[in-house]
Amino acid sequence: MSDLASTFLLGLIEGITEFLPVSSTGHLLVAEHWLGARSDLFNVAIQAGAILAVVLIYRERLWRLACGIGDPVQRDYALKLAAAFLITAVLGFAATRFGFRLPETIAPVAWALVLGGVWMLAAEWLAARRPERSTLTWTVAILVGLAQVVAGVFPGTSRSAATIFVAMLAGTSNRAAATEFAFLVGIPTMFAATGYELLKTLKGAEVHEDWGALALAFVVSAITAFIAVRWLLGYIRMHRFTPFAIYRIALGLALLVFAT
User: Fold this and answer.
1) What does the buried/exposed string (b/e) look like for 226-257 if buried means 16 or more CB atoms within 10 Å of the residue's CB?
2) Cα-based angle 142, 144, 148 (whole degrees, multiple of 5)
C-alpha cells in the first residue's frame, strides 16, 4: 500500500473510532502494525482532527457556555469541565514525565478491548437499573478526568467508553448527558495533547515529520468523525452501547488468536 493510501486509511480509522466506544488508539496501534508506525505527533494530531468535528457539532453548546458565565447553571457546568480537564492534564503530564510510552505489541491492546467490552456490558446492565438522571455532579466530573488518564495509559480502553460509562455509573445515567460531557471534556484534552506533542517536535534538533501527510490525515479524520459523531448522537437516543461491547470482545479475541 502506498504511503498516501495508508495515511488516508489511518485518518479514516481515527475519525470513525475516536468517539465510538471502541478505542481509536487501539485501532491505530493495530493498523500501524501492518501499515507502519507513525510518530506520536501524527497520532495525536489526527485525534485533534476528530476533536475539531466535535467543536463544530457542539458549537452552539460551547457558545452558550462561553456567553453564559453569569448563569449559575452554565458556570457550574463549565467549572466541572475545567476540573475534569485539569485532572487529566496534570496526571497525563506526570505519566509522560515518568517515561510512559504506548505498547508496541498487539496483546495488551487486545486484552484491553476484551475487558473493556465486558465492563461496558456490566455498566449498561447496572445503569439500566438506576433512575434516569441527567444531573452532572462533581463526583462525575472528577471520575471522568481520572477515566481519561486510564484510557491514555491503557490503549484499547477507549477514552469515550471510559468517560461515558464512568459518568453513567457515577450518577449521570442518561446516555445523552453522559456522552455530551465526555465529548466536551475531550476538546481541551486532545487539543492540549496535540499542542504538547507539537512543541516537543519543534524543539527537537531535527524534524522528520511529513507535514503534508499529517495535514491529509487530519482533514480525513475531521470529516469522518463529524459523520460518525452525528450518527452516534442519534443512535444513543434509542439504543444501548451493547453492539459496541460485543464488537470489542470479538475483535480483542481475534487479535489474541493472531498474536499467539
Assistant:
1) bebbeebbeebeeebbeebbeebbebbeebbe
2) 120
Check residue 33 and report its DSSP letter: H
What phi and psi values does residue 127 have, to the nearest 5 degrees? -65, -35
Strands (E) across the chain are located at: none
> 156: alpha, beta or left, given left = phi > 0 and alpha = psi -120 to 50?
left
d(CA 115, CA 136): 27
Residues whose CB falls within 8 Å of the CB of residue 215, separated by 6 or more in sequence, listed in order: none
Tell me the pLDDT tens digit for each residue of 170-179.
888 888 899 9
Q: Which helix (H) or strand (E) holds 163?
A: helix 159-170
d(CA 40, CA 22): 20
C-alpha cell at 196: 504538547
Which of the two residues, 59 and 192, has the higher pLDDT score?
59
pLDDT of residue 142: 96
Q: How is residue 140 annotated by DSSP?
A: H
Query: SS in 3 state form for 195-214?
Result: HHHHHHHHHCCCCCCCHHHH
Closest alpha carbon to 188 in 102, 98, 97, 78: 78
pTM of the model: 0.86
Confidence at 185, pLDDT banded by 50, 70, 90: very high
- Residues 40/253/220/52 CA torsion (nearest 10 deg): -70
Task: Indicate whether 257 pLDDT > 80.
Answer: yes
